[in-house]
Write a structure and sequence with these properties.
The protein is α/β, with parallel strands linked by helices and 369 residues long. The chain is built from 15 helices and 16 strands.
Length: 369
C-alpha cells in the first residue's frame, strides 16, 4: 500500500465544497489502485485523530485564526510533521498560503504533489506579499496538477511552472448521488413547473448571479437558484427591485433535492465570470445528468466541460443580454437542447468520471516513487 497524506484547510463533514469533494473522490477512488489516503485539515471543532470518512481516515488540527480566506493553526505544524513522516507522498491542495509555510517549516523529504484548484483572484494586495513564498513553494514541489488544459494555458502561475504541470480532469461518480424519489420529483415539478433553468452553487462574488438575474429580467424565463452564501440577501433584494416573479431562490438543500432538481431542469445556467471559478463542479454534475449547459468563456475549466455549440452555449462573461439570448435560444429549440444534453453526458462519460481521475492520480503517485 502506498500511503498518501492530503492537506487542505477544510474537509468533510465541516465543509462540503467542490475541493473537498475532489479530495474525497481521489481518496476513495485510489483505494482500488493500492493507495491508502488520509486527510489533515483545520477545524473549529478542535483537534482529533483517526476519524473515518467513508473508507479513509481524517485528522483535525485546531483552527486558531481565519484571515482573508486563510485558516491558521499553531498545532497543525506538529500534526502535519508527524503524519507526513508516516506517509510516502504528501498531496497539497492549493490555494492556501498557510500550507506553503507549513511545507517549509516541516522540512519534508518526501515526494510532493499539488492539486492547483484556482488562481488567487480576489486578494490582489495580499497576493503581492505572498508571491515570493508562493513561487518558492512551487519551485520546491515535484508535480503540479491542473484540472483542465484551458486553465493551465491561462494561469500566470501554471505557465511559469509548466515543466511540472500534469493535467488530470476532476471526475464524479454517479453512483454516489442519490436517486430522486417519485414523491420528491412530484413535489418540485408541482412547485417549479415543467421547464426551468437551474443554477446550483454557493452564492459567491465570482458566480455572476447578478448577470443571471438581469438576463431573467430581459427574457422572462423561469430560473431556479439552489445554494446559500454571503450574497443571498443582496441577490434577493436585487430580484425584488427588478420585480422578478420568474426567479426562485431555494437556499441550500440536501443532496436528494439537488438530484431531483438536476433531473427535472430543462438546462443548466452557470454564469461564473472570474477565474476564481477554475472548473465548475456543479456544471459537470449537470453534464452527468445529460443537461444542455450555458457558461462563460474566461479561459477556465468551464469551457473544457462545456464545448461551445456542442454540449451547450458559451457566452462572454458579464454580458446579461448575451446570457439572456442564449437561454432564449435553448428554450425555443427543445431538439437542439436535447441533443446538446446528450453530448454533455457523452463527454462526462468519456473524460470526467471519478475512476478515470483516480487512475490518473494513482499513476502519478507511482511515477513519483
Amino acid at each position: 500500500m502506498i500511503k498518501v497524506l492530503h492537506f487542505f484547510k477544510t474537509y468533510y463533514p465541516d465543509s462540503m465544497g467542490g475541493i473537498e469533494q475532489v479530495i474525497f473522490q481521489i481518496a476513495e477512488g485510489t483505494r482500488a489502485h493500492g493507495i491508502d489516503s488520509e486527510v489533515l485539515y483545520l477545524s473549529n471543532r478542535g483537534a482529533a485523530r483517526n476519524e473515518p470518512v467513508a473508507s479513509h481516515l481524517t485528522h483535525r488540527s485546531k483552527l486558531d485564526l481565519h484571515l482573508a480566506s486563510t485558516g491558521f493553526s499553531l498545532s497543525a505544524l506538529k500534526d502535519f510533521t508527524e503524519l507526513a513522516r508516516q506517509a510516502d507522498i504528501v498531496h497539497y491542495h492549493f490555494p492556501w498560503p498557510y500550507m506553503d509555510l507549513v511545507h517549509f517549516l516541516a522540512r519534508l523529504n518526501k515526494p510532493t504533489v499539488v492539486s492547483y484548484h484556482s488562481d488567487i483572484v480576489k486578494q490582489k494586495w495580499l497576493l503581492k506579499l505572498y508571491q515570493p513564498l508562493m513561487h518558492r513553494f512551487f519551485s520546491s514541489v515535484d508535480r503540479v496538477v491542473a484540472s483542465s488544459p484551458n486553465y493551465a494555458a491561462h494561469s500566470p502561475v501554471l505557465t511559469r511552472f509548466q515543466n511540472k504541470v500534469s493535467i488530470i480532469p476532476y471526475g464524479l461518480d454517479r453512483a454516489t448521488y442519490p436517486q430522486a424519489s417519485a414523491s420528491k420529483l412530484a413535489y418540485w415539478r408541482e412547485r417549479l413547473g415543467k421547464r426551468f433553468f437551474l443554477f446550483v452553487g454557493a452564492l459567491r462574488y465570482y458566480k455572476g448571479l447578478d448577470y443571471l438575474l438581469q438576463a431573467a429580467k430581459i427574457n422572462g424565463l423561469p430560473v431556479v437558484i439552489m445554494g446559500g452564501g454571503f450574497l443571498e440577501a443582496e441577490l434577493k433584494q436585487q430580484a425584488a427591485e427588478l420585480g422578478l416573479g420568474n426567479v426562485h431562490f431555494l437556499g441550500g438543500l440536501p443532496d436528494d433535492d439537488k438530484a431531483a432538481l438536476l433531473e427535472l431542469c430543462y438546462a443548466f445556467a452557470f454564469p461564473s465570470h472570474l477565474r476564481s471559478e477554475s472548473f465548475g463542479i456543479s456544471l459537470l454534475e449537470a453534464a452527468m445528468y445529460g443537461k444542455p449547459l450555458i457558461s462563460c468563456e474566461m479561459g477556465s475549466g468551464t469551457t473544457f466541460i462545456n464545448l461551445a455549440d456542442q454540449t451547450g452555449l458559451v457566452v462572454p462573461p458579464r454580458d446579461a443580454p448575451a446570457l439572456a439570448h442564449a437561454m432564449q435560444r435553448l428554450w425555443d429549440d427543445p431538439g437542439m437542447a436535447q441533443a446538446m444534453g446528450s453530448k454533455a453526458l457523452e463527454r462526462y462519460e468519456a473524460i470526467f468520471t471519478a475512476p478515470a481521475m483516480a487512475a490518473a492520480y494513482a499513476d502519478l503517485y507511482r511515477s513519483l516513487l
